[in-house]
Design brief:
Strand content: 5-15%
Structural class: alpha+beta
Largest sheet: 8 strands, mixed
Shape: elongated
Strand order of the largest sheet: 5-4-3-6-7-10-9-8
Number of domains: 2
Number of helices: 22
């Protein structure tokens, strides 16, 4: 029987992916310069296969439609990923090529054990059979270990018990947007007028109550939907024009943004920022969550994310990078970014955690979950309500996946989520998992001693040992150190490989197919996070619920861009991520384009172009 590598991603044909593919090929060709003859041709053949099957794993250009050296060279998160090239040379970290070539090797060796060896020999590479070698070396000790494991239901007698699940669902946007759709149209899928009306009513109610208690504010007048939309646009502009303080927009320095400043006065913006609310008052219920002030907005986003997009078969549960562009943060730390008053605002430790379920084919965030970290927070979503973080993260995983149908989805996760009871629970619902295991961070309930201590005999680099219980496999794989994986999605008999470049040559490190897939998908998400953090709203208020609100709005804008990239509108007008953000701000503020009038955003009606208060003037 032939074992094929899982169809992680379909080939892309758009021009936006040609740049990363060419960079992979150029880097690989340079690395193979010392090679000659048949060896060179066979390895280049593997590289071309990798380009066809895995070019979408090179996230930087493909998702955000941008090119340039910064797409692959800046802030590469794979440097800390043990499954990618770990050479001292900085060029080893470019473009995700290691994961791509590893996928090609796995595909070339995707048959049975004999066919895998033949394919590897044809490619000038060599596969070892660490399972068979380890069994021979262990002898009687191996038999005793197998007997011990058998008492708990775990066995070292491996079988192909976990064929890769067949995917019966579909992937892509659920709404067919026209070619004439604007960035504001995609934004409104997640922040519709109905949600804006709630913000308007709650903001006005809070302003009235505040003035009843502390006295009238003569500079305040009630906000409407058009002005609330413009208020969001002003803050969203800090995602593409970073500034330490949002008030720098009205300044005359480097961070001033005159095109945004003329659309709303600073005085009016400060009033809206002061009174802005999604939920103004606590109800009589005592069991409200700690984030009740922003919960309706989060619930609305969760529903709209699920309604607008169907994810791919492979998805990742993780905590995304939720800070701004690292380059901007470094400038702030060195004194290059000052607030309007000339002082740098100190970053406070976040009091909440954000988890997401993210499509590993497109980067679309399908579901979000926020929990509080601080002591004394009310609600069942606080860490204090659980005995350990693994219990909390297990609940987070269940909430993130509770609406997934039994369509053969495969979920990748980190050690704080990985646990045998959770994987078995998900498998009963038709959801398969693959996760990194840590004796310190994971819930090790039901796992054998090997999960805590490792194999009795040290493993050489590239070797692995495995135990199986039902359809679940426990893998211990040695790279520079020992890594443990738990999976019910991949067979322990299927081989994969990680390719690293060292000294101008390609070097193969054998691994189970589950390890190869984990590295590919997590590497994709890491690269997405690197790029995603550059387009985060840089306004950071002090109140936790406001931090969560602007964070969630940033996620919504990134998701809107992904839907735009997958729609006919992208073929009609190709915006990069920065251009998309700028056009969105222009449409929310109704700022005319340089070559013509601005396209009205949906639902604005005949609202005036300026949102300034009557009789007010723009701040200098």
């Amino acid at each position: 029987m032939h074992h094929h590598a899982p169809p992680l991603l379909a080939p892309r044909t758009s021009s936006s992916s040609s740049a990363p593919s060419s960079r992979i090929a150029m880097a690989a060709t340079a690395a193979l310069a010392p090679c000659a003859g048949e060896e060179r041709r066979s390895v280049l053949s593997l590289l071309r296969q990798a380009q066809c099957r895995y070019e979408s794993l090179n996230i930087s250009d493909d998702v955000f439609g941008e090119s340039g050296d910064d797409a692959t060279d800046g802030g590469d998160s794979s440097a800390g990923n043990p499954f990618y090239s770990s050479s001292d040379s900085s060029s080893d970290r470019g473009g995700g090529g290691a994961a791509a070539v590893a996928a090609a090797v796995a595909e070339a060796a995707g048959g049975d054990e004999g066919e895998a060896s033949e394919a590897a020999e044809d490619a000038g590479l060599f596969f070892r059979n660490p399972l068979a070698e380890d069994a021979e070396e262990r002898g009687d000790d191996g038999e005793r270990e197998a007997e011990e494991c058998g008492e708990d239901g775990w066995s070292s007698c491996l079988r192909d018990a976990a064929p890769f699940p067949e995917f019966t669902g579909s992937c892509g946007p659920t709404l067919q947007m026209p070619a004439s759709a604007t960035p504001a149209d995609f934004f409104q899928l997640f922040v519709p007028d109905g949600l804006l009306k709630i913000m308007v009513s709650q903001t006005n109610a809070y302003a009235r109550k505040f003035q009843e208690r502390f006295g009238q504010d003569p500079a305040w007048h009630e906000v409407d939907v058009a002005e609330m939309r413009a208020f969001l646009g002003v803050v969203a502009s800090t995602a593409t024009h970073h500034c330490e303080s949002v008030l720098s927009i009205w300044g005359g320095g480097f961070y001033g943004n005159r095109s945004v400043a003329v659309a709303m006065t600073r005085i009016r913006f400060e009033k809206l920022l002061k009174y802005f609310h999604v939920v103004a008052f606590r109800s009589a219920r005592e069991d409200l969550p700690g984030l009740y002030k922003v919960q309706p907005f989060l619930d609305s986003l969760k529903s709209s994310f699920e309604a607008s997009f169907m994810p791919s078969q492979t998805q990742v549960l993780h905590e995304p990078l939720i800070e701004e562009d690292p380059t901007f943060l470094a400038a702030c730390a060195s004194g290059g970014c000052a607030s309007e008053g000339g002082e740098r605002r100190r970053r406070k430790k976040r009091k909440f955690g954000l988890w997401v379920r993210q499509c590993s084919q497109t980067g679309f965030i399908c579901q979000i979950h926020v929990h509080l970290k601080e002591s004394g927070s009310s609600g069942s979503d606080c860490l204090d309500a659980f005995r350990s973080k693994s219990q909390l993260h297990g609940l987070v995983a269940r909430r993130l996946c509770h609406n997934l149908p039994p369509s053969g989805y495969v979920i990748f996760c980190g050690p704080s989520i990985t646990s045998l009871p959770l994987f078995q629970e998900f498998q009963e619902k038709g959801i398969h998992c693959c996760g990194l295991l840590s004796p310190r961070k994971s819930d090790c309930t039901g796992l054998p001693r090997m999960a805590l201590t490792g194999p009795k005999h040290p493993l050489a680099r590239g070797q692995h040992s495995a135990l199986i219980k039902g359809s679940t496999s426990l893998l211990c794989w040695s790279n520079k150190s020992l890594f443990r994986f738990l999976t019910n999605a991949y067979s322990p008999l299927k081989q994969g490989a990680i390719i690293k470049r060292k000294g101008g040559h390609l070097m193969e490190v054998a691994c189970p197919q589950a390890v190869e897939a984990f590295a590919a998908h997590l590497g994709y998400i890491c690269k997405y996070d690197d790029k995603y953090s550059r387009y985060f709203i840089s306004h950071k208020p002090n109140k936790t619920w406001q931090q969560v609100f602007w964070l969630a709005l940033s996620i919504a804008i990134n998701n809107a861009y992904i839907l735009y990239k997958l729609s006919p509108a992208y073929q009609a007008q190709r915006y990069g991520r920065a251009q998309f953000g700028e056009r969105l701000v222009q449409q929310l503020l109704r700022i005319p384009e340089a070559n013509g009038p601005a396209t009205p955003s949906p639902g604005t009606g005949d609202a005036p172009g300026s949102t300034a208060a009557p009789g007010s003037t723009a701040a200098p």
